[in-house]
Amino acid sequence: MLDYRGSPDRLFHALADPHRRAVVERLTHGPASVSELAAPLPMSLAAVVQHLKVLTDCGLVRSEKAGRVRTCHLEPAGLRMAEEWLRGQRTAWENRLDRLGALLAEEADAEEADAEDADSAEDSTRRDEE
């Protein structure tokens, strides 16, 4: 797998999988053991461990081992990168849409002015014919 440190690519790749999103959703309620995380998922414990590795590698989850139990915790700082990236995208699109709105308003005003000029010219032509 390519190394995307410093970019949100790894994070979005990790969140692209519905099973990993389910694990993250579960961890929003508090820490859980790997067995607790695996219970509702339709896969082996080994597959869940692989998914947890992806989530850990991208910084969304951290785990600690106490005896034979590995407990996983959500790492909120891991979501900040995605939040910042999305905020930047939102700002860029809002600016683009604001410029588009201004352009469309200018065009509508220009069309309205052209229509008024055309009406005035028609009225003037009729008066000249009378």
What does it look like?
- By secondary structure, the chain is mainly α.
- Helix content is 68%, strand content 11%.
- It is built from 5 helices and 3 strands; from the N terminus they run ααβααββα.
- It has helices at residues 9-15, 18-27, 34-38, 45-57, 76-129; strands at 32-33, 61-66, 69-74.
- A 3-stranded antiparallel β-sheet has the order 1-3-2.
- A hairpin with a 2-residue loop joins strand 2 and strand 3.
- Helix 1 (9-15) runs antiparallel to helix 4 (45-57).
Give the arrangement of secondary structure elements:
Blueprint: H1 9-15, H2 18-27, E1 32-33, H3 34-38, H4 45-57, E2 61-66, E3 69-74, H5 76-129
Antiparallel strand pairs: 1-3, 2-3
Helix pairs in contact: 1-4
Structural class: mainly alpha
Secondary-structure element pattern, one letter each? HHEHHEEH
Outline the low-pLDDT stretches.
none
SS element count, helices: 5
Strand content: 5-15%
> Given the C-alpha coordinates, what overall shape results?
rod-shaped
- Major β-sheet annotation: 3 strands, antiparallel
The first-to-last residue Cα distance is 83 Å
Strand order of the largest sheet: 1-3-2
Computed CA radius of gyration, to the nearest angstrom? 29 Å
DSSP helix fraction: 55-70%
**Number of extended strands:** 3
Mean pLDDT: 87
Summarize the structure.
With 130 residues, the protein is mainly alpha-helical. The chain is built from five helices and three strands; from the N terminus they run ααβααββα. Strand 2 and strand 3 form a beta hairpin.
Keywords:
130 residues, mainly alpha, 3-stranded antiparallel sheet, rod-shaped
